[in-house]
Design goal:
Two copies of one chain form a homodimer.
Chain A lengths: L2 H4 L6 E4 L3 H10 L6 E5 L12 E4 L5 H8 L4 E4 L6 H9 L3 E3 L2 H8 L1 H10 L7 E4 L2 H7 L5 E5 L9 E4 L13 E5 L3 E11 L5 E3 L3 E5 L6 E6 L5 H17 L4 E10 L4 E7 L9 H4 L4 H9 L12 E8 L6 E6 L1 H5 L4 E5 L4 E2 L4 E9 L2 H14 L1 E4 L1
Parallel strand pairs in A: 1-2, 1-4, 2-3, 4-5
Antiparallel strand pairs in A: 6-9, 7-8, 7-9, 10-11, 10-12, 10-14, 12-13, 13-16, 14-15, 16-20, 17-19, 17-21, 18-20
Helix pairs in contact in A: 2-10, 3-4, 4-5, 5-6
Chain lengths: 383, 383
């Protein structure tokens, strides 16, 4: 793409999805005079107040996405669950869509994703398909077993563990996967980017802790506490995944480290990801800047670490639902090396992702201690 | 201010002036769900595309500013030349205005500013007042002499040196100051902030080089290459200035270091300033975040240095005027430790400030070399 083309208001960068991931992209895109136009089904979505233009539309509606895309020069997503047929139609009209509809079609369906891993010699947990709940019940051979919806899951929803026959009632009705439960040593994540020239960039591996209750990332730290050998293997595997997809864009590759030190791909997300939020403060180029660099086929930015760090999600407190306020945010702001990101969601609900806190420190241990203490201080309540 | 109050769309943060300083404030304010509403006389001003709302109005027009302020909860500026009577009227209506109209009234008039320094024992270059050009001609006793307009100067305009009688023709017609030319060793700048609680925060001193042609900051580096004693004296002096003003807000204090090691206040700016742009990447809290923290009376952020660095302004190249494009921006983006900020001005003109580049490095010398080389690579041209 010619650099004469992508700056200024004539060039329209279309963003499908108006949540926090898009918002952090827009904040950084302003450094390059990139004009970001956004569609989301929520008129008060986090991107609504800072987009160059903002329209309300259903992300899974063919006509809404097609209409949105007509006058855009490039299109990208910040959420997977968008109408992929519309994206394909836009590609046929000559629009640049990142990631491509073909990649998105595979990733949207965890069944196709699993088959893709097998076909490309990418290690992943063993699995079987279930067409529906009835089919599923005939295919369970042991407990516990992971049950994942093939389509439509997000933010920890659409994934559950069935522990015994008494869990049959909650098994998913729609097409799903039964996956062997991996007794993992730890969960790690690698963010990797690739532009249309085929240039790739990979971030240092991070280590993640999930909240069993919400199934959301609760805390991560960078770099992961793993051997240099495993660090290299995890980066190589992430690069293998993105190049196998021949994908342009940014990809978060979530991995299990098994107790015998092997790596398995758990899930991927073809967009900026919760496990890369710390890159805003802890790495030279944030994942959000890397994202739009891939869309514009610009040189990728350095992924060099500036500081070790940790990130905690700011989740809606239990027992509160309604217009949000952040109790003690003053105390967090007064703290050195602590960086607060509030996403601008007007309504809090228990476990809703309302923001995140990143801590920079000289060691991941220090960073984790400070991040966890800040997370206890800050309370997301409703007025 | 209660933290329940300032977040979310009900709370309206009014920004007077929609240039690059406002734009960088908005980019960061999004991290706290602060809704920034902007007024500027240019419908395509840098803030126009990312403000929560944007209105066109004359900043020096009483009614335009009063009307803009009516429904805002707090008001601040990103340029000094605004209608101060309207701000005073808004204060009487109970609005929080930062900086206050009384401080702004003094700073807008370089004559009152000079008198204020004398009254408060703040060192500054000797001067006399001239009511008009005729008066000025009778008061010049030697050459060279600095001639500064009392009101309306900005970005290097309104300041000139008269070198001999042949320069009489260009002497300012309006009320101005004649100031002794200081044969300084170097020019340094200190950014200082103060909130309504009286809490202060001061950034490390930076050293600035001005372009004689444009009279604009051409390059700065942080920290300044001065003794620890002078560093302390310059910070203390900046604190003395802001506390003498009893000012809430952020203040850039530009200082001369004389050849015998004394400090003189040259100019002040009661807002984020070109000499603090590097704080985005080189300090824990950027001057833009510090600015809105002062407006909201939040705890001030740490000014701790993360890295040494240098900043160069990206100026419109000579010989080009019209819709802008940035030649070789790809080459700048590919460079590690280099951060590019393009302000989103649609039209370039010779010497117009179009953006800036910050470099982080292990030494200011390294940072300067890389910043200057990047500034040669990137060319601001018109299409």
């Amino acid at each position: 793409m010619d650099t004469k083309n992508w700056q200024g208001k004539e060039f329209k960068f279309g963003l499908i999805g108006g949540g926090q991931l898009g918002r952090m992209l827009i904040q950084k895109a302003a450094d390059y005079d990139l004009h970001v136009h956004t569609i989301d089904n929520d008129p008060d979505a986090p991107c609504s107040k800072i987009s160059s233009s903002f329209v309300v539309g259903q992300l899974n509606n063919y006509n809404d996405i097609l209409n949105f895309g007509f006058d855009k020069d490039v299109l990208t997503i910040e959420i997977e669950n968008v109408n992929v047929d519309a994206l394909e139609a836009l590609e046929k009209l000559g629009k640049i869509v990142v990631p491509s509809s073909s990649v998105l079609r595979i990733i949207q369906d965890k069944g196709l994703q699993k088959q893709f891993y097998l076909a490309n010699d990418i290690p992943t947990a063993p699995f079987v398909f279930a067409d529906n709940k009835e089919d599923l019940l005939t295919k369970i051979t042991s407990f516990p077993v992971v049950n994942k919806l093939r389509k439509g899951g997000y933010d920890g929803k659409g994934v559950q563990i069935l522990r015994s026959e008494s869990d049959f009632s909650k098994a998913f009705e729609n097409a799903s996967i039964l996956e062997t439960v991996i007794d993992f040593e730890k969960e790690i994540s690698v963010i990797v980017a690739r532009n249309a020239n085929g240039e790739t960039a990979v971030y240092p591996t991070v280590e993640c802790y999930f909240n069993e209750d919400s199934n959301l990332v609760e805390l991560l730290f960078s770099p992961a506490n793993i051997s240099a050998k495993l660090e290299k293997e995890s980066k190589d595997l992430a690069l293998k995944v993105i190049t196998s997809f021949e994908m342009t864009g940014i990809l978060a590759v979530e991995l299990f480290v098994t107790k015998d030190g092997k790596l398995l791909v758990n899930e991927v997300a073809p967009r900026p990801h919760n496990s890369g939020h710390h890159t805003i403060e802890c790495n030279h180029t944030s994942q959000f800047e890397q994202h739009f660099r891939t869309v514009l086929n610009l040189p990728l930015g350095s992924t060099k670490m500036i500081s070790q760090g940790a990130m905690v999600n700011i989740l809606g407190a239990k027992g509160y639902e309604g217009p949000v306020y952040y109790e003690n945010i003053d105390k967090v702001l007064a703290q050195q090396d602590v960086f607060c990101h509030i996403y601008g969601k007007e309504i809090t609900k228990p476990n809703r992702k309302m923001g995140h806190i990143t801590v920079r420190a000289n060691s991941t241990k220090e960073a984790i201690i400070l991040a966890e203490s800040m997370n206890k201080v800050l309370k997301v309540k409703s007025m």
